[in-house]
Amino acid sequence: METNATTTLADAALPTNALERRLDLAVAIADIDREIDQRLRRMGKNFKMPGFRPGKVPASIVKQQHGDQARHEALNEALERAFAEAVKSRQLRVAGYPNIEPKASESSTHIEFSAVFEVYPEITLGELKDVEIERPVLEVGAAEMESTLAVLRKQRVRYEPVDRAAAVGDRVTIDFLGKKDGEPFQGGQANDYPFVLGEGAMLADFENAVIGLKAGETKSFDMVFPADYSAKDLAGQSVTFAISVKEVREAILPEMDADFARALGVEDGDIVKMRAEVETNLKREVKKRLQGKVKDQVMEALLKANPVDVPGALLELEIQRLMQAARQDMEQRGGIKMKDFPMQREWFVDQARRRVSLGLILSEIVKVNELHAKSDQVRTIVEDVAQSYEHPEEVIRWYYAQPQRLAEIEGVAIEDNVVAWALSRARVVDKTVAFDELMGQKS
C-alpha cells in the first residue's frame, strides 16, 4: 500500500548537536483506516471464539478484540515507511533510531508527527604530509634469542630451601607488622607472605631490610613511604616494620636439555628443533609488536588530522558494548559475585568516543581509497594466525567453515591497508627499538 505522506525537514540543527535533524511527517488518515481494515480482515480469517466457526466471527467483535493492535501496527508501519522515504529522497544517512512524537494538529485528513534523529557526519579527510611517524625497527639476532630463552627458563623456575642469608633472586616467606605512630595501619600486616627479592613486589627499602636475614631471624626497621604512594594516607609517612623470616628458597633454573625442550612442546626433546621453534615464534611476536606500535601511531595521527562530530546514538551504543564487555570480563575473573557490579557510564565515554571516531574515519578512508580486504590478503593473515597452533590446517579449516568467522580477519586486513595508506602519505622515520622495551621486559 502506498501511503499518502508528506514531510518537511528542519535543517537547522540544535546548537548543542550539529548532527541533529528533524523531519515533520504527516500520514493520511484514510490510508491508515484502509490498512486497519485490511489487517482486521486478515486477523478475522483465523480468529477463534466459542460459538462461532473459525473465520466466521463478526467483524465488530474482531475489531473490539484487536482494533487497538491493528491501529498501532498500521500507524507504526506507515510512519516507518514515510520516514524511510523521506530520508532516502534527501540522501540522509541516519545514525541510530529516530525519536518520533505526535504533533498537536487540527487537521481532519492527516496525522502529523515529528521525527528527531542524528545523521552521520560529513568527513573531509585531512592531510598527513606533515605528520611524522616513528617506525620501530628491530632485527632478531643471537642476543634476542638468548634473552628469550632466559625468560622461558625463568618462567619454569623452581625454588629449593637453603640455609643461608636471603639474597636478590631468592623467594622468602615472612611475617610482618607495620605501625604508624605506634598503631597498626591497614594493609601493614601479613603472615606467611611469600615474594621474590628483586622483582619489585615490595618497596625497595622493605626488600633491602629483608636481604641478609636467614630463616628464623627477625628485624625491626623504620621506613618512609614514597610521596606518590598509592595509599594517600601513607604517602610520605614514616612507619616502623617488624619482620620475621620464615623461609628462604633459592631459584633453580632448568637446564637447557631435552626435558626443557619437551616442556616447550618439542616431543622428541631435540634442542636444535626447540631453538628453531623459539626463533620462529619470537620473530612472529616481534613483527606483531612492531606493527602494533606503528598502527597505534597511525590511528592517533588520523584522529588528530580528522576531528569528527560523533553521533550521540552511536556513542551510547558503544558505551553499552564496552560496559557489557567489562562486566563479562569481571565476572570471568571474579565469579558470579561480580555480575551486578555497579558500572559507571562515565568510565567508558572517552574510550567509546575514540572508538566511534576511528570507526567513522577508517570507514571514510576505506571508501574513498578503495582499501577493502582482498581474499588473498585474508588468506595470508589466516595462515599466519594458524602457524601459532599445533595443527595449523585445522585452524584454517575452522575459519573458512563459516564465512562470518572471517569478519575479524577481514577487519585486520582493512586496518593493515589503512596503515599502509597512511604511511605512504606521512613522513616515516625508522628508529631502532630496544628488545626489552619492545617486549615489556625488565632490563
TrEMBL record:
Location within or outside the cell: Cytoplasm
Keywords for the protein's UniProt record, in alphabetical order: Cell cycle, Cell division, Chaperone, Cytoplasm, Isomerase, Rotamase
GO BP, one annotated term: protein transport
Domain of life (superkingdom): Bacteria
Its EC number(s): 5.2.1.8
Pfam families in alphabetical order: FKBP_C, Trigger_C, Trigger_N
Keyword Nucleus in annotation: no
Gene3D superfamilies attached to this UniProt entry: 3.10.50.40, Trigger factor ribosome-binding domain, Trigger factor, C-terminal domain
NCBIfam families linked to this entry: tig
Protein role: Involved in protein export. Acts as a chaperone by maintaining the newly synthesized protein in an open conformation. Functions as a peptidyl-prolyl cis-trans isomerase.
Name this polypeptide is given: Trigger factor
Protein species of origin: Candidatus Propionivibrio dominans
Gene: tig
